[in-house]
Amino acid sequence: MDKFFQHSVFNRDHSNQKQQLFYAIFFTVFTIAALGIDSVFFTRHFFNARLITNFFAIIYFSLFFLSSDSHLRKLMFVMVFLSYIGELIFCNLLGMYNYRTDAIPLYVPFGHAIVYGSGYVFANTKFAIKNETILRLFFVFFFIVLFLSVVIFLNDIFTLVFGGLFFLILMRKKWQNLYCFIALCVIFIELVGTYFQCWIWVPKIFGSIPAANPPMGAVFFYAGGDVLLAKIVSAWDKKSNNIFIAP
């Protein structure tokens, strides 16, 4: 009976891992489709379909969430609220970028959670774990070349400053590949979103720092949010464990 139970648990966990990987990989296709529907082009030539994008983003988030283990579920759940607070600060308060409409789209906080979940799943695949050292070297080289390229060719001084701060976060987190995988997902969604004009970064951040659209240095803010997210979930876990073991 115990062997049967263990076998069932193993099969369920293996199935969940395959589902998570599917959602992480398919996130690229979903992003293009969802943001394409919310694009300026689609709105002008057809109709305002943001409600459709909102609906499918919530559905995709829910499916991804249900296929995840308890730890990733907590991370994705908290990320929805944490990212919305970030949107209020960076978009509404600081005016670093603007959406197609005045309101922050409902799909955005769920999209941030999907982006985080995808990077998390990629970072925890057998391939990523087995090739951790090689990937770490690749990521360092890739981001150095990327940041310097946009600084030199696009005069993206914002990336020069905040790209450097991104490396400081990586250094403090002992060069964990998790943050680099998430950063790749962030760069992808930023490129797609700005291409479809779902949002546009202002040419001068804080009114004085030249930036590309999108600035690659924006990954710093995501990485900082990821660090805060991990601390919140860690505190949540500790509180839950204390309640569980309390007499």
How does this model look, in words?
- The chain has one domain.
- It has helices at 2-37, 40-45, 50-67, 70-93, 107-123, 126-130, 132-154, 157-172, 177-195, 219-245; strands spanning 97-99, 199-201, 204-205, 209-210.
- The model is unreliable at 3-11 (pLDDT under 50).
- It is globular.
- Helices cover 77% and strands 4% of the residues.
- The two termini are 31 Å apart.
User: Helix content range of the residues, please?
Assistant: over 70%
Q: Give, in order, the helices and strands.
A: HHHHEHHHHHEEEH
The chain-level mean pLDDT equals 91
Structure annotation, total helices: 10
Shape: globular
Transmembrane segments: 21-41, 47-66, 75-97, 103-122, 134-151, 179-202, 214-233
Keywords: Membrane, Transmembrane, Transmembrane helix
